[in-house]
Design goal:
With 929 residues, the chain is of the alpha/beta class. It is built from 24 helices and 33 strands. The strands form 10 sheets. Strands 5-4-24-23-22-6-7 form a 7-stranded mixed beta sheet, with helices on one face. The chain has a 6-stranded mixed beta sheet with strand order 29-31-30-33-28-32. A 4-stranded parallel beta sheet has the order 11-10-9-20. The longest helix has 18 residues.
Length: 929
């Protein structure tokens, strides 16, 4: 019988344009298939270093973002009350005139009256440059409510952090342990890595109250009680130290474990050049840690009684307070299981160790014939970070890694360029405001003593979010979640204009969503808005759009230039420095403009120094022009590849007018591989240090010691004890003294007086198919997650007489929601959770008012407040980590009771009018003839 003739490889496009995905923060390479000038299909780019052709559901669904009915179409001016969603379309010229009319006077009089905060963008080095040139101290991005604990703890401890700045050694690890990792972050690289290590038979342990995603495929799941990760980790540190299963050679050579601590001040002993002192085993004398030939002694005590850091660690962690039997009940993990996991870490790290035959020379001049592998690797994310004890928990995890000798050793955790970097070479925060002039330096950075805080001369906060104050001294990413409430309260001062980009602060990106909506619409006794002006930029008709006075419509990610830069959040891998671009593979069919290009225009109109030439003309025609021609410091610009007039230089070189074309020809990315022999032991490896200087990652070699004991924290603690000229306010003195501990410790994040009334922890995590609230207006992704139930463990379902599809009233100290529930057996028995960002406000995102996202979908945000419940001491304390200020989303405590089924999830807000109307009932289009 004749078989039909089938074309098994039909032509799907006329042309392929290669760029970078923006459906999450992985920044995978994509091939955008074009037909007759329109996007027909998106697939992974097999040549790309990040994903090597792998692409997830949300990446493929990017085509739906480009065609979304919720896309904004033109600049908008509010014509109705704030929150109504009533706008009229205006020209860009009028939009710029309005913005200039608000911004010029405050720049000339008091630039701090502008609060400029951005959400999940990949251009922080650019937006901060704009804000610095404007002169306002009030700038930050979303990290303060996302993962600043992770970033700050990593950099202060070991000079780099998880997520974008490090990765497991997928080729050599034999035991991989994840802590608090949901499946939305770094999803494709982690999936690829898990496939690699599982094919080799490596073991995966997942520590998470919720068994979904990566934890579902783990060989062992540890369903920990939320907020107790630090206690569990330090208990394992206790077990390892007690058993002597720590890498003493690694600790002596590469960390400050042998550095002497002054017995009187708690500061590190230093020589006249400021170098940390160790006792040299050969001479028995105090010696600079980096002196050629020095052999640091971990056990020797200085003749005056000063002890090495490791002695202080032993004093703390060998205490019975950290024994498994003492912590098991709080962690929800049996003591024998804690011991077994610690023993497994030690067994793999030391008994399955091996040598890589790589010769290398360290910063003390000693040449080594090989590198010792410690094939245990770890990864962590927001689950351990978003607690009031998150900074110290993240620090504890790094201490666990370091005492096993697994950081930068083969088989362990490896830094991605531009890291590792010692914390001291990062900028310090700057806050000096001068009318009509730029700020005196970068806004964000790392403090090292009280003199670095962002305080005015009278000791009050210089920033509207109170970052870098005694409330949260090490707030390296700012406190975006506090901006609106502080501006509304006029504490520490009033602002005039709130300018935000891609930050859905009236809905799923804020604590206390209902309260924030009220703050945004509240008026003073004169009938004027308390926050006088709000400018907002987004590509879509989000909930936040309705609360702005002026909308600058952004493009979708396939219609714009973007720079994923070594100055910011690059796409590097552990073996290579890499960066990437996005470029307009299609032109917008609406009157919209990439936000960064709009800032170039606005910066020029305002005469900001970095955005105009000497004759006052506009310096950068658009963001693509900026990417190509901006020089941050001599020879260093936003992109590292194809620099120099002829494009033959990499890392350093003058601007190349054809640079973007070279990137496009190369698939949208640039890669420079680290030389063989330089790709491990990076902080101490001379070959890596020299290569990093050559690439412009830093200007001189920067070897350093990992800081198990963080001396800057002790300086703040000493201030709280009364030492020094700069002192904390009396009501914060004890908080600073307790929390600024230079060695990690665990504290209970739950308000003690609320545990009995609210015994259940409520969490959110994002599904793998979504990363941002954009995802739920995407037709393909809506089919995967049209609404979200509250997942409850079997025990709680039975105790409350609940079954799948029933409804429950969930109450916190702040509020109540009524939502549908579903049973989940693989869940910590005192925890409930839901997917975040699926619930939508009626009228937003061009969705029908009866869409499931708006009727069954819900947010836990309504239960969370940016302030803790009153303690009776006359102060209102922020719901955040007292060290960095990171929002403590996951400290939420609730109680649950069965409720009659309402018509829709509660609270239900009235619809807002959408400037783009509703989308069609059926979304369909045809590409090509």
């Amino acid at each position: 019988m004749a078989q039909p003739t089938l074309d098994l490889s039909p032509k799907v496009s006329d042309e392929i344009r290669k760029t970078t995905c923006y459906m999450c923060a992985c920044r995978c390479g994509i091939n955008v298939h074009m037909k007759e000038g329109k996007v027909a299909y998106i697939e992974g780019n097999r040549d790309h270093p990040v994903n090597q052709g792998v692409l997830c559901a949300k990446g493929s669904a990017g085509i739906m973002q480009v065609n979304a009915p919720s896309r904004l179409r033109a600049p908008l001016k509010r014509v109705g009350p704030r929150g109504s969603g009533e706008f009229e379309e205006i020209s860009w010229e009028e939009a710029y005139q309005i913005a200039e009319g608000w911004l010029r006077p405050i720049r000339e009089e008091d630039p701090s009256k502008l609060a400029f905060f951005t959400g999940r963008d990949q251009s922080q080095s650019f937006t901060s440059f704009w804000a610095q040139n404007f002169g306002t101290p009030n700038y930050a991005a979303h990290g303060g409510f996302c993962s600043v604990n992770m970033a700050a703890a990593g950099i202060y401890t070991m000079g780099g952090a998880f997520w974008e700045f490090g990765q497991p050694d997928w080729d050599h690890t034999k035991l991989f342990m994840l802590f608090g990792v949901a499946e939305d972050h770094d999803s494709n690289p982690i999936k690829m890595g898990l496939g690699k290590i599982k094919a080799r038979g490596a073991k995966v342990i997942g520590v998470n109250p919720i068994r979904s995603g990566y934890n579902a495929v783990a060989d062992e799941w540890v369903g920990i009680t939320p907020g107790t990760d630090g206690l569990f980790i330090l208990s394992m540190v206790h077990c390892l130290m007690k058993a002597g299963k720590i890498d003493l050679d690694y600790l002596a050579r590469w960390t400050n474990a042998p550095v002497l601590v002054d017995k009187d001040t708690g500061l590190l002993l230093r020589d006249k050049d400021g170098k940390e002192l160790v006792i040299d085993r050969k001479t028995g004398k105090p010696t600079a840690f980096d002196k050629k030939g020095v052999q640091p002694d971990l056990s020797a005590v200085h003749k005056d009684g000063h002890k090495p850091v490791l002695h202080h660690m032993a004093d703390r962690y060998l205490s019975d307070d950290y024994a498994p039997e003492a912590v098991a009940e709080r962690c929800g993990i049996p003591a024998d299981r804690i011991r077994a996991i610690a023993a497994e870490l030690a067994r793999v790290a030391f008994e399955e160790s091996f040598e890589l035959p790589i010769e290398w020379t360290d910063f003390r001049g000693e040449t080594h014939n090989s590198m010792t592998a410690r094939p245990v690797s770890m990864h962590a994310m927001r689950g351990i970070s978003a607690h009031a004890n998150g900074f110290q928990t993240c620090r504890a995890l790094h201490v666990l890694q370091i005492i096993l000798g697994t950081v930068e050793a083969p088989g362990g955790f490896r830094f991605k360029p531009p890291y590792p970097k010692p914390s001291k070479i990062h900028p310090k925060p700057h806050c000096k405001v001068t009318p009509g002039q730029p700020l005196d330096g970068p806004h964000l950075g790392f403090v090292h003593d009280p003199e670095d805080l962002a305080l005015k001369e009278d000791g009050t906060p210089a920033r509207i979010d109170k970052a870098y104050t005694w409330e949260n001294p090490m707030s390296a990413h700012g406190l975006m979640h506090m901006v609106i409430s502080n501006a509304h309260a006029g504490d520490p001062y009033k602002i005039d204009t709130l300018f935000m980009y891609m930050a859905n602060m009236s809905w799923n990106s804020s604590m206390n969503s209902g309260g924030v909506m009220q703050m945004l619409t509240d008026k003073d006794e004169n009938g004027d808005y308390v926050i006088p002006h709000i400018i907002y930029s987004d590509a879509y008709s989000s909930e936040m759009v309705a609360y702005a006075d002026l909308i600058l419509p952004d493009t979708t990610y396939l219609e714009r230039h973007d720079c994923i830069s070594l100055l910011d959040r690059p796409i590097c891998e552990a073996d290579a420095a890499a960066d990437a671009i996005r470029w307009p593979v299609i032109e917008p069919d609406r009157d919209v403009k990439g936000f960064q290009s709009a800032l170039c225009d606005l910066g020029a109109r305002l005469g900001l120094p970095g955005f105009v030439n000497e004759d006052g003309s506009q310096k950068y025609a658009d963001y693509g022009d900026y990417i190509t021609n901006h020089i941050r410091r001599p020879g260093i610009g936003p992109l590292a590849g194809w620099r120099g007039e002829d494009g033959d230089q990499h890392g350093r070189g003058e601007a190349n007018p054809d640079q973007l074309d070279r990137y496009i020809e190369n698939g949208g990315f640039f890669v420079s591989h680290i030389p063989e022999g330089a790709n491990y032991m990076k902080p101490w490896n001379n070959a890596y240090q020299d290569w990093a200087v050559e690439m412009g990652l830093y200007d001189t070699p920067q070897p350093y010691l990992f800081t198990l004991y963080v001396e800057p924290m002790q300086k703040f603690r000493r201030a709280a004890e009364g030492h020094g000229d700069i002192q904390p306010p009396e009501h914060l003195r004890e908080q600073v003294r307790v929390n600024m501990d230079p060695l990690p410790f665990w504290s209970d994040p739950a308000p003690a007086n609320k545990v009995d009334d609210y015994p259940i922890t409520a969490l959110t995590q994002r599904p793998m198919a979504m990363y941002h609230s954009w995802g739920t207006q995407n037709a393909w992704l809506r089919q995967l997650h049209g609404h979200n139930p509250l997942y409850m463990p079997t025990k709680l379902m039975r105790e409350h007489g609940l079954a799948d599809g029933d409804w429950a009233k969930v109450t916190s100290p702040h509020g109540t929601i009524t939502v549908p529930v579903m049973e989940m057996a693989a869940l910590n028995e005192a925890t409930v959770w839901t997917w975040n960002a699926i619930g939508k406000r009626k009228g937003a995102w061009a969705l029908d008012e009866n869409a499931p996202e708006a009727t069954k979908g819900f947010l836990l945000n309504h239960l969370i407040h940016e302030l803790l419940p009153p303690k009776g001491d006359g102060h209102r304390w922020t719901n955040s980590d007292p060290i960095t200020g990171q929002a403590a989303w996951f400290d939420l405590k609730v109680r649950v009771e069965k409720a009659p089924a309402p018509a829709e999830s509660q609270p239900a807000y009235p619809p807002i009018k959408s400037p783009v109307g509703k989308g069609p009932k059926d979304l369909a289009w045809k590409v090509g003839g």
